[in-house]
Amino acid sequence: MNTAIALWLSQDAVMNGAIYALLALGLIVVYTVTRVILVPQGEFISYAALSLATLQAGAVPGTVYLLIIAGVSVALVDTIALVRRSPNRGAASATSPRNDASGAIARILFWNVLVPLLVAAAAWWSASRRDLLVLQVLVTIAIVTPMGPMLYRLAFQPLANASILVLLIVAVAVHYMMTGLGLVFFGGEGLRSQMFPGLTFQLGILSITGQSIAVVITAVVLILVLAVLFGRTLYGKALRATAINRIGARLVGISAEFSGRLAFTLAALIGAVSGILISPITTIYYDTGFLISLKGFVGAIIGGMTSYPAAAIGAVMVAFLESFSSFWASAFKESIVFTLIIPVLLWRSLTAQRIEEDEEP
What does residue 84 show for φ and ψ, rounded to 5 degrees? Predict the structure, then answer.
């Protein structure tokens, strides 16, 4: 290996490390708030990348129909739950709980039925406008991101008080379901979206494309925005409070259900952005996202599933190890990357104190 090869491998590692750091952040947010190890995180990546490529091909992706079906299902579940909670009283007045329930049902239908239909209409229109890349990117994000809170409402919120093992089993089941749906929507052939327009810079022997710069800059900006969200906003502080003590957060009026939906929304947004960023660089198949998210998971494990900076550092380490392993032993690079998790888990199991899982009332 000479200096030129080392620089090229490092450039590739930095770009991949930015994506892995984003995924590690999403996994940690979901785990600390809901105790769910988000195995389906990779499906958000695949859905976004393949949906964008399908829109650019002039077709409507099947994820649009999944969004509508999931939205209708959530609206039905939320409406039934609301009706069961509403008091059964006589004639309703202008300020009665029955009117409040009607307003809540209207909001449920708006967010879970009308908004997905509007997103579907935008997808159908943008599929015929191949020249509007920015619009197609925004539509892709609008398709994939709402699937996060919908997934939480349908699969995980009813089991919020279950053990971590039960939540993991459900997460694995959801992963297989979403992978199968991806095969139905997009087929077994891989897709790649168009390269984002941009300049190519020559830095010594390195040729840096606008795509790689966009990946790193977008990842850094998104991480900074999330840092501001967690540190400066009321919603971010609610997430932090729920992550630290779910029962205590509930006692001071923070809804665990709202925090869970917000955490899944952020994870889906991170997955969608990651899929869009990598879709012009590599061919994406219906099951590609799972392997990518696993590498983000290794970074999150290095961070102990609690520390965002440590997870980001771990994700970059994974990217460098993967990149240089592809040169020295390309046939074993995946095994080398995932073997990294063994000494980390061993060290943490020997040094960490056992903490019993919180009991939920």
Answer: -70, -30
